[in-house]
């Protein structure tokens, strides 16, 4: 006799995710993700788990900018995680929606039934901030104090948050094509105790120990910063190159830097690395999480983390969210999958 509970799906509602952050705090969630993601990337770097395939998807139609992507990861014994995510740089202007919008599901590998489903907007933002924090811990000088922000939208908040938990930041230099976004970042990231200054790209490059770029630049319109004088130990997290043809950094700067990617195959088609030849691209972040001593060799020179975001990161992030929800007792189990008593008769609705 089939157990109905086996086919129930845990739904983490918007309210449940909000309660997780209220109860355990944003610092706890981000710290958990940094450490769990670092461990998971280390496992990948040691060949202890499979990598994700590159994401696939569709360009939005009718001349609209943006993409809708599908990002799957299968871990034997754990199940399949599938995230659907939409990138629409005009979302806020058109409908007051986040630029990145989506959901994520965990699928049981034995039955194929959905085990859980939840929001992917906050999950993606936090895991992206965690990934940049990990790369910065590996490549940036531990004494880094000044962070440069190029693109002060939603991603900037979690990027700063992750860095603030690993570095003693005292100054944030901000540049954005929108003066409103640049000015409001201080209020949105008010939980970080530091000085915020709006500056030009040249000033930002001249003084920053760590920079992250998180823009909605139009494909083909980059770079968003010039290749000018900077501190010799500068580390850059480039997270906005998430479409074919969309890049944020000058190719001359990339060629002077050690470029570490998150997902080599994906980064060559839609990351900063699409500007480079294969031999100009360094080892992936997973390698350095498994062998951190090799990253320290690059600390005193220019480094770039080419972050495109991949599904293994999402699988780990969903694990963290589900575990926190379970510990607190959040989420609602619902029946989504139709599984009739007579499995040969799809019109058998008696089990409903």
Detailed description of the structure:
This is Alanine dehydrogenase. β5 (100-107) and β6 (114-119) form a beta hairpin. Strands 2-3-4-5-6-1-14 form a seven-stranded mixed sheet. α2 packs across α4. The chain is 35% helix and 21% strand. With 352 residues, the protein is an alpha/beta fold. The chain has helices at 14-24, 26-45, 91-95, 121-139, 154-164, 179-188, 201-207, 251-256, 264-270, 285-290, 292-295, 311-328; strands at 8-12, 56-59, 67-75, 79-87, 100-107, 114-119, 146-150, 171-175, 195-198, 210-213, 235-238, 258-261, 303-306, 332-335. It has two domains: 9-122 and 312-334, ornithine cyclodeaminase, domain 1 (2-Layer Sandwich), CATH 3.30.1780.10; 128-310, Rossmann fold (3-Layer(aba) Sandwich), CATH 3.40.50.
């Amino acid at each position: 006799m089939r157990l109905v509970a086996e086919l129930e799906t845990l739904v983490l509602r918007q309210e449940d995710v909000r309660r997780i952050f209220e109860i355990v705090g944003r610092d706890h969630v981000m710290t958990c993700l940094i450490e769990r993601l670092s461990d998971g990337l280390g496992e990948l770097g040691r060949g202890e788990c499979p990598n994700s395939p590159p994401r696939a998807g569709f360009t939005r139609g009718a001349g609209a900018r943006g993409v809708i992507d599908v990002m799957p990861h299968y871990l034997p014994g754990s199940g399949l995680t599938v995230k659907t995510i939409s990138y629409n740089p005009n979302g806020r202007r058109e409908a007051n929606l986040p630029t990145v919008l989506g959901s994520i599901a965990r699928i049981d590998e034995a039955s194929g039934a959905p085990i859980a489903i939840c929001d992917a907007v906050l999950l993606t933002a936090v895991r992206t901030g965690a990934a940049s924090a990990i790369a910065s811990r590996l490549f940036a000088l531990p004494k880094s104090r000044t962070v440069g922000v190029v693109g002060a939208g939603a991603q900037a908040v979690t990027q700063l948050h992750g860095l603030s938990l690993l570095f003693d930041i005292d100054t944030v230099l901000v540049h954005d094509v929108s003066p409103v976004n640049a000015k409001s970042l201080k209020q949105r990231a008010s939980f970080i105790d530091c000085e915020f200054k709006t500056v030009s790209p040249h000033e930002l490059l001249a003084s920053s120990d760590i920079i992250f770029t998180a823009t909605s630049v139009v494909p083909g319109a980059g770079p968003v910063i010039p290749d000018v004088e900077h501190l010799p130990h500068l580390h850059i997290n480039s997270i906005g190159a998430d479409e074919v043809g969309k890049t944020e950094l000058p190719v001359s700067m990339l060629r002077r830097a050690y470029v570490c990617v998150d997902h080599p195959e994906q980064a060559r088609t839609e990351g900063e690395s699409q500007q480079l030849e294969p031999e100009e691209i360094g080892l992936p972040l997973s390698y350095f999480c498994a062998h951190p001593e090799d990253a320290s060799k690059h600390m005193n020179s220019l480094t770039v983390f080419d972050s495109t975001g991949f599904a293994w990161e999402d699988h780990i992030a969903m694990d963290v969210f589900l575990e926190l929800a379970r510990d607190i007792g959040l989420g609602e189990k619902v029946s989504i999958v139709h599984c009739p008593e007579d499995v040969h008769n799809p019109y058998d609705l008696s089990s409903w």
